[in-house]
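job 3f2a | input accepted
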Amino acid sequence: MTVPPTETLLDLRGLACPMPVLKANRALRDMAPGAKLRILATDRASVADFQSYCRETGHALIAFTETAGMLSFVIRRRAETSPS
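job 3f2a | predicted structure (84 res):
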């Protein structure tokens, strides 16, 4: 799989819930606002997990595909919110 230079790749194939979301969360914390993270996973529970995770954190799940059992997610990191 070729990843565009504007994305960071996180290969989490073989990991079971909740590890894909936990590792993606850690990676996203270190990324700039608006940066894109492509996650490769094989755990079917990741589909619902990443949907919920993005809904709760404000990150955007901008793409999801499945090919031969491999799941690919692209998440765009949310913009930073200014302190109140």
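job 3f2a | The mean pLDDT is 92.
job 3f2a | closed
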